[in-house]
Amino acid sequence: MKTFDAIINRKSVRTYTGEPLSENELTQLLKTAYASPVSMGNYDDLTITVVTNSKWLKRLESNAQQTFHTDRAMLYGAPMLIIISTKLQGSSADNAAYSNAATIIENMNIEAVELGLGACHIWGVINALAQNQALMQEMKLPEGQTPVAGLVLGKSNEQYEARDIPMDRIATQRLD
Ligand SMILES: Cc1cc2nc3c(=O)[nH]c(=O)nc-3n(C[C@H](O)[C@H](O)[C@H](O)COP(=O)(O)O)c2cc1C
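^ thats the input. predicted complex w/ flavin mononucleotide below
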C-alpha cells in the first residue's frame, strides 16, 4: 500500500474481534515507533509500554470510567494498548515531549493500516492513568515519566476504504 493511501484510508477503529496480534505484527509496529523522529534525539526520555494482559486492560478502562463518571467502553475490547510515557518539565518545552509521543503513535497507526489491523488513538484512558499514581506504580511505569499518549490495536472486521477528505477541514493559511 502506498504511504499516501494508508494515511488517507486510516480511520479510528472502535470495534475489535479480540484476537491477539502476532509477534511479527508487534515487532513491525515497534520498528515504526523506533523509527519516529524524536526531538533532539532524546530517545531515553521515552518509554513504550505494550499492554496485552486482559486484567490490566480492564483495570485501565475501569480506572478511566471512574475518573470520567461513565460506563461507556473506552478501550473498545481491543487486545492491545500501547502507552507512550515521557519526561515532562511543566514548561513550554513539554510541547516537544507531547509531539514526540504523538508522532510515535501516528507512525504505528499508519503501520497498523498497512498490516490490516484496526487502531485508535486513546487519550481518555491515558489521562486517567496519569492522574492515578498508585496505578502507575503498580504497572511499574518508569519513575519520572508521565503517560501522555496511547493507541489501541487489534484485528477488526472493519475495512479501510478510500476516504473523501474535505479540503477545508482545517483552517489553512498561505503566505505566498
Ligand atoms: C490526540 C488524540 C486523542 C484521541 N483520543 C481518543 C480517545 O480517547 N478515544 C477515542 O475513541 N478516540 C480518540 N481519538 C480519535 C479521534 O476522535 C479521531 O481521530 C477523530 O474523531 C477523527 O476521526 P478519524 O480518526 O476516524 O479520522 C483521539 C485522537 C487523537 C489524535
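Helices lie at 3-9, 23-34, 54-67, 94-115, 124-130, 133-138.
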